[in-house]
Design a protein that fits this description.
heterodimer, A: Arp2/3 complex 21 kDa subunit ARPC3, two-stranded antiparallel ribbon, about 5% strand, disordered N terminus, B: mainly alpha, 4 helices, about 65% helix, about 0% strand, elongated
Chain lengths: ~220, ~120
């Protein structure tokens, strides 16, 4: 019964949801963070790290195509920002990875708008990456176990990114603030469990196979 | 596990996910879409039924609110390839995955500092 809808939007903010002027402001902010992420790549990304970055980016692109059903006739998919930031040891790594994913999704597949791509980069790359990375660092210090820390940090990264999206929708006049925060918060609190579980599992698999490939910043010890 | 093996394993996992995606992914509206349909009266926030006519009307309505009528014809809209069904979607996602891999690798090589 949703076949028709499946063909209309898909996820990520579409062009029609944000007025052009506001969309341009989000693009400007996003460009600053993209520039910083390129500076991170130049300064911190050693040549031997490049295949890991590429595989992680491809994996996040693929996993984003799988929408998992949640209650209330809704679905959600992994974002991957927390995973990228934790494995590569910097929130700017998440900006780098998610920007590439979002450009290909938007330009090739019409998934997420073009004029509003800056907002999607801010929500998923910047907010997802910074919330995921900083909360992981803090939680890992307290819990002294990287996997529950990664689960909670990834949950929080998705939840906060969704709330930021609701605020943007309110500024755009698309959603009323209260109802937008409530429904986005409700759905993404559940989708965050998927984000948390897949992030913790992926971190476990990578650290079991090759602990040395992880950034020292990831706090996972062999 | 050797570094190269891990990366080959990673690429294989990504491609398996890409091929499986269209067959296992839920076609329910995602979080943002569902909130949108709920707020625009095409669906109850806690409900599962979607009113398709109201959903279509909501998409026109939101364009009027924001005035953003930008439209762009993507080559493979919604991960579909014209004339092909689910296999086309799998192929589209595989193409996307390989392209993302290549761009990330190329850009990474160009930016990274050599050992």
């Amino acid at each position: 019964m949703y076949i028709c809808i499946n063909k209309v939007l898909r996820m990520h903010i579409p062009d029609s949801f944000i007025p052009l002027l506001q969309a341009a402001v989000y693009w400007l902010v996003a460009l600053v963070f993209i520039a910083l992420s390129l500076r991170w790549a130049r300064a911190e990304m050693r040549e031997e790290k490049v295949p890991l970055v590429a595989v992680l980016t491809a994996g996040i692109f693929a996993i984003q195509a799988i929408n998992v059903p949640i209650p209330w006739g809704t679905s959600g998919h992994m974002m991957g920002a927390a995973l990228a930031a934790i494995v590569l040891g910097s929130p700017f790594a998440a900006v780098f990875v998610l920007t590439l994913v979002l450009i290909v999704q938007g330009v090739l597949f019409g998934d997420g708008g073009i004029t509003v791509m800056g907002a999607n980069i801010i929500n998923m790359g910047v907010i997802g990456g910074f919330v995921g990375f900083s909360s992981y660092k803090g939680l890992n210090r307290v819990l002294k176990n990287p996997y529950p820390a990664a689960f909670a940090a990834a949950w929080l990264s998705l939840f906060v990114a969704a709330l930021a999206c609701a605020v943007e929708m309110a500024l755009a006049g698309t959603f009323p603030l209260g109802l937008g925060l409530f429904s986005m918060g409700l759905y993404h609190a559940v989708i965050g469990v998927i984000e948390g579980a897949l992030t913790a599992i992926a971190l476990f698999l990578i650290s079991s196979a090759r602990p040395d490939i992880l950034s020292r910043e990831s706090g996972v010890t062999a | 596990m050797e570094r190269d093996n891990l990366l080959v394993f990673g690429v294989i996992i990504a491609l398996v996910i890409a091929v499986a995606a269209p067959f296992i992914a839920s076609s329910n509206p995602d979080g943002l879409e569902s909130a949108f349909f709920g707020i625009f009266g095409a669906k109850e926030i806690h409900g599962t039924d979607l009113d398709e006519d109201a959903a279509g009307a909501a998409e026109e309505q939101v364009q009027e609110i924001t005035g953003n009528t930008f439209s762009f014809e993507a080559p493979f809209p919604d991960y579909s390839i014209e004339g092909l069904s689910k296999m086309g979607e799998a192929l589209a996602i595989v193409i996307g995955t390989i392209l993302v891999l290549a761009i990330a690798f190329g850009l990474g090589k160009a930016l990274s500092r050599p050992e």
